[in-house]
Specification:
Helix 11 links the parallel strand 8 and strand 9. The protein has a single domain, classed as Aldolase class I (TIM Barrel), CATH 3.20.20.70. With 384 residues, it is of the alpha/beta class. The longest helix has 18 residues. The strands form four sheets. It has a three-stranded parallel sheet with strand order 10-1-11, with helices on one face.
Length: 384
């Protein structure tokens, strides 16, 4: 019998938009194609089916990097400093708490708390930090400590993963970010990073957190040394874990920002590739309810357009961001601009928390952006 011809792009999209689970083979074909508009329409149809409501969401938080000292060597990172580097810091506790106070004052309800893999900070330091935060700001959710940090803490403390997660949760950790995912394929990870968690252990952190009843987000940084097939393998690992646990609330992807990194010879992926990758992710990740736009890396216009290519959420106002900006990409939005990016497309902007619960009242408009730390970052080289 003659071999069966592969389905056309149109047939793949029609079947997926109608609810058929997208195969890895067909997803690769979508990424290989140049039919951006068609892929975007299908992704938007899926989003409309999952989110028929009249609104699209955003949140207000602050990215606080408590340290830039890191034992891992990541060629793609412009933010980290080696343990003995003169520019290494650990944020003074009072400064960190003041940043949270600023965030609360302008309507923020969450902090994204992440840092490098510090070689000597013990687990107890992280527990004390969380207790201090929740003691002063019980209403603020701590979306903190990426899987590489959690895995690193198991090595520093010599304690099992589940115990580390339980202790952090008791101290006040509210949810886990998906940082450090990059591409969940060990060939890629070992080629561009040393001393950092590999794929199975990254996924295991989320698995154990979900088994404890916790929620987390999933991410992907693409457009560097991965193949298109490896991009889909990343999505497949996330989809399989979500089938198992159901603990991911959202997926966020962004393109690699090469400036000021050891990989600055790689040309940045453009907005065409970003929109196509996000749209395919929406089609493939049929079990993750929310897709966030990445305006922080793409800018307002493409971030807005992402709402028509599979995203149902504009992401965070991001009062402070340091990691992406260290790679030379700096985009700012005011609250008015964030809300208008949604309303210009015909939706009502609604503020939500990390669990996608809506706030009854919107914050006042006219708040200025705080795109740079309002408090000078102290350099603390002596570790407590």
């Amino acid at each position: 019998m003659p071999a069966t011809s592969p389905r056309t792009i149109a047939a793949i999209l029609d079947a997926t938009a109608a609810g058929e689970r997208l195969s890895a083979e067909d997803a690769i074909r979508l990424l290989e194609s140049r039919e951006l508009a068609a892929i975007g329409r299908a992704a938007h149809a899926v989003t409309q089916r999952l989110h028929p409501e009249s609104f699209r969401t955003y949140n207000i938080d602050r990215n606080i990097n408590y340290t830039n000292i890191c034992t891992a060597v990541c060629d793609f990172c412009a933010f980290y400093r080696s343990p003995k580097h003169a520019e290494g810091y650990v944020l003074d506790r009072d400064v960190l708490l003041a940043k949270i106070e600023e965030t609360v004052a302008i309507g923020g309800d969450q902090i994204l708390l992440q840092g490098g893999l510090h070689p000597t900070l013990p687990l107890e330091w992280y527990e004390d930090l969380l207790r201090d935060i929740k003691g002063r700001f019980p209403e603020v959710n701590v979306h903190g400590f990426s899987p590489p940090e959690i895995h690193h803490l198991t090595k520093v403390s010599k304690r099992p993963l589940r115990e580390v997660l339980e202790r952090l949760a008791r101290a006040g950790l509210g949810s886990l970010p998906g940082g450090g995912g990059e591409i969940l394929v060990d060939r890629v990870r070992t080629a561009m990073t040393r001393g950092k968690v590999l794929t199975d252990d990254w996924l295991e952190v989320h698995r154990q957190w979900h088994r404890l009843g916790g929620k987390s987000t999933a991410t992907m940084m693409f457009g560097h040394i991965e193949t298109l097939a490896e991009r889909i393998e990343h999505l497949d690992r996330l989809r399989r874990l979500q089938d198992e646990t159901g603990g991911f609330t959202a997926f966020i992807c962004w393109s690699f920002q090469p400036d000021n990194t050891e990989m600055d010879d790689i040309p940045p992926a453009g907005s065409f590739e970003y929109l196509k990758t996000q749209a395919v992710a929406r089609l493939y990740l049929d079990n993750i309810p929310n897709i966030q736009s990445s305006w922080v890396t793409q800018g307002r216009e493409i971030g807005q357009l992402a709402l028509l290519f599979g995203a149902n959420d504009m992401g965070s106002l991001m009062i402070e961001e340091n990691v992406v900006s260290a790679a030379g990409t700096v985009h700012h939005l005011t609250l008015d601009e964030m809300r208008s990016a949604i309303s210009e497309l015909g939706w009502i902007p609604r503020r939500r928390n990390v669990f996608y619960e809506l706030f009854e009242e919107e914050p006042p408009v006219g708040l200025p952006p705080v795109s740079r730390p309002a408090i000078d970052l102290p350099v603390v080289t002596a570790v407590p």
